[in-house]
Amino acid sequence: MNRPKDDKPRLDAGSPDAAPETLAPDFDQFTQNMGRLVEEYGKVTAAYLKPIERGEAKPAATEEVSEMVKTLGRVAERWVSDPRKIIEAQASITADFLSLWSATLKRVSGEATEPVAQPDKRDARFNDPDWSAHPMFDFVKQAYLIGSRWAEDMVERTEDIDPHTREKARFYVKQIAGALSPSNFVATNPELLRETLRQNGENLVRGMKMLAEDIEAGKGELKIRQSDAHAFEVGVNIATTPGKVIFRNEIMELIQYAPATEQVLKRPLLIVPPWINKFYILDLNAEKSFIRWCVSQGLTVFCISWVNPDERHANKDFESYMREGIFAALDAIEQATGEKRVTAIGYCVGGTLLGVALAYMAATKDKRIDSATFFTTQVDFSKAGELSVFVDENQIRAVEEKMAKSGYLDGSRMAGAFNMLRPNDLIWSYAINNYLKGKAPTAFDLLYWNADSTRMPAANHSFYLRNCYLENKLSKGEMRIGGETLDLKKVTIPIYNLAAREDHIAPAPSVFLGSQCFGGPVDYVVAGSGHIAGVVNPPTKVKYQYWTGGKAEGRYEDWIAAATEHPGSWWPHWFAWIEAQATKRVPARQPGDGKLPALEDAPGSYVKMKA
Description:
Blueprint: H1 27-53, H2 62-80, H3 83-108, H4 130-133, H5 135-156, H6 163-179, H7 190-198, H8 202-217, E1 243-248, E2 252-257, E3 263-265, E4 269-272, H9 290-296, E5 301-306, H10 318-337, E6 342-347, H11 349-363, E7 369-375, H12 393-406, E8 408-409, H13 411-420, H14 423-436, H15 445-451, E9 456-457, H16 458-470, H17 473-476, E10 480-481, E11 484-485, E12 495-500, H18 508-515, E13 522-527, E14 545-548, H19 556-562, E15 564-567, H20 571-581, E16 585-587, E17 600-601
Parallel strand pairs: 4-5, 4-6, 6-7, 7-12, 12-13
Antiparallel strand pairs: 1-2, 1-17, 2-5, 3-16, 8-9, 10-11, 13-14, 14-15
Helix pairs in contact: 1-8, 2-6, 3-5, 5-6, 8-14, 10-11, 10-16, 12-16
């Protein structure tokens, strides 16, 4: 039966039996597309097998699967060891399903009923009206919610289990629940079913084609595209703030940005970004660029651009990044400007490195950094957040064994770990959009940056995992670098410590604890949103807010409850803090005019290296 072009298929909510009548596709076209779908699936298989045939396949994720099975097995053991408790758990879920079945029967017979289970208001997976309007899909949705919440509750109610195992179990249950959501399958998602019938399966053909391309790009592993990879080019329409590379060594390039004002603050600014991502998160575009905004305020801005390491950098450790990164940058800034003292910013793990450097400098009486700002940085890892599920002796050993073979950790591993913290938003939503709806992702600079991952040197990453996440040595005063035992209490310079209220990577309570590790004045500030949006929040967009409340004392919960909320960006508040410390201004400095000639235009070469 050929359906008129303007007759959009829909799911008839009035009667489940009537739904198929309004969903008839063009069967000839549908059959042809199913044949094409099989052809595209063959390409998917070929893309997967090609690295295996060439001997280039990456090791399978057997360790991760084994860890998940062992963790959830420990939870199951606690329940089955007590027959009374397992009967209680079974009775709980059985009662919920009986309630759901009863409510569904009443609804089908025409009675109004209240839902047994409803999705969270922020859960966008079930926004399509047919999830609630159509009894069949409403039943599937509620059954899924009952089952996934029951599994989560089982983890929470497990007795005699250590906190780390419980945290891992929560994480794995979240991954499994996300993967099994009915929204991920055509047959159980009303929107996908409707779209597939409307397009006669053309969406699935396009999606299968993109799936083959993404497996090809991942060299045998699926690398889900989150943005249009061809819409941006670093240095062309992203990372475009004018400047010059004035120094380069094995692990970093130092960029000096061109001034935008005739006078600048005498004291330069050094930015230390994380090496697990590329620095241009702070220079996405002219509107959102923190670096460009700093230049416009009259700061002489220098930024480290880390190399994308390979096997040649295997032995570059934390001390190497401190000496050849931060200390080399300080030397270069003095040559470029004549200034011996700077203010510094460290972002995420770049902030952890800056904290280590400050403690080392305090121990060796090095006073070249006058004040420091930390963006979503942890120095105390006792409440390290969801990433800690990846850190224990067995998992670190497995990572170290992988890195020993290549000399580095592949950037996709860390990117995958970050995506798994929000699987519904950063994994499954794109899988549905790309491979089931057949829609190419839109051009989004933030997600382009997110996919532009970097590798990590074996020695550096191993030191970081063990000394920070596993043993928390920095906050305990036990970390040793360059023959010195580091004590953050000896760091007495002024510190601006920015946390983000919804940060899953460096949780605000963890940053709050870290504020108490330093020996000098610390201004603790909390930004709205998360790890990225809380930092990249320009004043022109009054999108989020920030909180101030003075010294980080007592409990985080008490501090935030008493803090003062301010609308808009924290950037001007931070700049006022910077300017008050050293108000003197001097004529603007041009990159390359000092003792260090310009090597090339910003953003340099290192940032363009692909993983």
